[in-house]
Amino acid sequence: METYADDIENVLIKADEIESKLAEMGEQITRDYEGRHLLLVGVLKGAFVVMADLSRHIRLPLEFDFMAVSSYGAATKTSGVVRILKDLDHDLKDRDVLVVEDIVDSGLTLKYLLKNLAGRKPATLEVAALLRKEGIQQVPLDIRYCGFDIPNEFVVGYGLDFSERYRNLPYIGTLKPSAYGG
Ligand code: 5GP
């Protein structure tokens, strides 16, 4: 049934661990924003799975919006220069905005995005990220809700791809060298 199983080297975070962490994060967000009306902003494509699952643990009136960005330069490393491919549909002015990210690696993409979004004058602007690569952020970022700190390895699953594949894996794992086409 699971067509990708042969490509996975290690399962770093199991599906049920992700599920309970997202439930915890959702509860915290529900408490923190009580009585308010939140706008979730997802960064495509990776964030769509986290966004769908996290949002169902947030017991508040929610609106959703998405942005698509692409980094210039090499595919495996972010340069920090970000191009907006699809902008938001919502006006952020005076809104409570929560950016939902799959993973924060160098932090450069997020830094650019936050600066861009802050310029639109939201009432509040915070970040929820499922994964953060430990200790390698080139820029210190205040991630209000963080699921897991993981080692500096390339991971796939739960929205994260390699060459557009593996996004539908229900867990986070690393790839065998053979899966990279080697
Ligand atoms: P940053 O700008 O923080 O270095 O990188 C952010 C983006 O790079 C993420 O949103 C994600 O698309 C991609 N990325 C960073 N690390 C990984 C990883 O381990 N696996 C996958 N599939 N994508 C990653």
Short description:
The protein has 182 residues and is of the alpha/beta class. The protein is built from 3 helices and 9 strands; from the N terminus they run βαβαβββαββββ. Helix 1 packs across helix 2.
DSSP strand tally = 9
Number of helices: 3
Uncertain stretches: none
CATH classification, class level: Alpha Beta
- The CATH architecture term is 3-Layer(aba) Sandwich
Count of the separate structural domains: 1
The multimeric state of the shown protein is: single chain
Terminal residue distance: 24 Å
Order of helix and strand elements from N to C terminus = EHEHEEEHEEEE
Main sheet overview: 6 strands, mixed
What does the average pLDDT come to?
90
Biggest sheet: strand arrangement: 4-3-2-5-6-7
Under CATH, the topology is which?
Rossmann fold
Beta-strand percentage range:
25-35%
Hetero compounds: guanosine-5'-monophosphate
The assigned structural class equals alpha/beta
Q: What's the shape?
A: globular
Helix percentage range: 10-25%
Taking Cα atoms only, what radius of gyration do you get, to the nearest Å? 16 Å
List keywords for this structure.
3-stranded antiparallel β-sheet, 182 residues, binds guanosine-5'-monophosphate, Rossmann fold, 9 strands, 3 helices, alpha/beta
Describe this protein's structure.
Strand 5 (96-104), helix 3 (108-118) and strand 6 form a beta-alpha-beta unit. This protein has 182 residues and is of the alpha/beta class. The model has no long low-confidence stretch (mean pLDDT 90). Helices cover 20% and strands 32% of the residues. The protein binds guanosine-5'-monophosphate. Guanosine-5'-monophosphate binds at residues 46, 78, 102-110, 154-156, 160-162.
